Amino acid sequence: MSDELFRLTIHEAAALLRQREISSVELTQAVLERIVAVDNAVKAYLSLMPEAALESAAEADRRLAAADDPASLPPLLGIPLAIKDVIQVAGAPTTCGSKMLEDFVAPYEATVIGKLRRAGAVLLGKTNTDEFAMGSSTENSAFVTTRNPWDLSRVPGGSSGGSAAAVAADECLAALGSDTGGSVRQPASLCGVVGIKPTYGRVSRYGLTAFASSLDQIGCLAKDVTDAAILLQAIAGHDPLDSTSMDAAVPDYVAALGLARSETGQSGGVELHGLRVGVPREYFIDGMQPAVQQAVTAAIDTLAALGAQVQEISLPHTQYALPVYYLIAPAEASANLARYDGVRYGLRHPDAQTMWEGFKLTRGAGFGPEVKRRIMLGAYALSAGYYDAYYLKAQQVRTLLKRDFDLAFQQVDVIACPVSPTTAFQVGEKADDPMSMYLADVFTLSLNLAGNCGLSVPCGFDPQGLPIGLQLIGPAFGESTILRAAYAYEQATDWRARRPVIGEQ
């Protein structure tokens, strides 16, 4: 057996574990050694739990050894995963990439973490994030700047950049992230992995540190579409602890991939006959990197060659999505982050003499520049005299954006478009230009405003060898459809076979 076990996908590792060709301890140890070897360069992790991970792996091996029918065991049993550091793991640090929570240890567990534990997954550690998930490059972390494994001088995207980089660098087999305006899909695109943002309400948000409560959703980052389906299957479902969680049946996402297999019986054959794919004209704009447009257009042509019916559609209110998002998200953030006051938990400034001085000094020292910027934007939009003109108007336009998608999905089953207008940019390139940074999410944030599902699947590389992602958007609770389309495209191409070589950069 190769000593590069860390390069396995979830489904490959699961098969070897059940055949007893490898053990979970061996697999976990290989991944931990990989982290030691490359993470000083990549900086994907903020904290690790090696002892707990090896204990979980040993327990998984015991379950595998005792099983009469190993095939009946959960597919995540013994699989090493990473968790974005905005999701609570009991007894582990949850910093949210902020000085405000630098010493905070989670006293309880997120619902998704409980589901992963019951599935037998091995939790390796917590990955880096833009502070409180506010950013598109993971440069806003208070602790380290994560680097893109394809080019260490470039960003991995954000805010789930640590999780995306960890998957791309083989520092885990898959990871959880969170997506408020593209924070799973955009780093997935920039790092050349698969990232899926489920429908709002499909996955419990209990234990996810709130940024913008009407937009946040936990998502998955994986090495291929099959792994994304396996991980989503494990965390999806209704949760009474989350009032926004939908009480709706969860389909078999892995089985849905099989619907894309060709009936001709040819090995690896796939088809998408009857699938209606819409291409929104508003998502192909001036200023987009030519290589991105060419790769996405070629990917859409591949979908057509697989039998999909491709047609142009319009999402006419798209131009308003960016200003609407940057009114609603900061407004919700300003309310959610009011709890960090130095009284109950988190940072407390030692020089405060009065309560009000404590608030001022603690929040001034604990929050970074981007978080402060968004708190101020949000507080302004909610203030007396401006609420109707800004926040209320933004909510009204949000309804129009959702209606655009609803009307489009009466004509098509899937929407295909770019994830990001560019490939990964240089570290520091946009640090002093917030508007340019915000524009990195121009193709992803509409989806969160509408509450639909979407994913990024690798579809090519630019001349510098940097990955490009194809975004597939589905209607509410249409995860099976976009996974099927992504799987068909993935099987018809070989982009997933290319991996970054960290040590030779």
Key terms for this structure?
single chain, 505 residues, alpha/beta, Amidase signature (AS) enzymes, 11 strands, 12% strand
3D structure, described in words:
This protein is an alpha/beta fold and 505 residues long. It has a domain of 298 residues: Amidase signature (AS) domain (Amidase signature (AS) enzymes, Alpha-Beta Complex), CATH 3.90.1300. Helices cover 38% and strands 12% of the residues. The chain contains 16 helices and 11 strands. Helix 7 packs antiparallel against helix 16, helix 10 packs across helix 12 and helix 10 packs across helix 13.
Brief synopsis:
The protein is α/β, with parallel strands linked by helices and 505 residues long.
Looking across the biggest beta sheet, what order are the strands in? 1-3-2-4-6-5-10-11-9-7-8
CATH class of one domain: Alpha Beta
Give helix % range: 25-40%
Proportion of beta-strand residues: 5-15%
CA distance, first residue to last residue: 27 Å
Structural class: alpha/beta
The largest pleated sheet is described as:
11 strands, mixed
Shape: globular
Q: How many β strands by DSSP?
A: 11
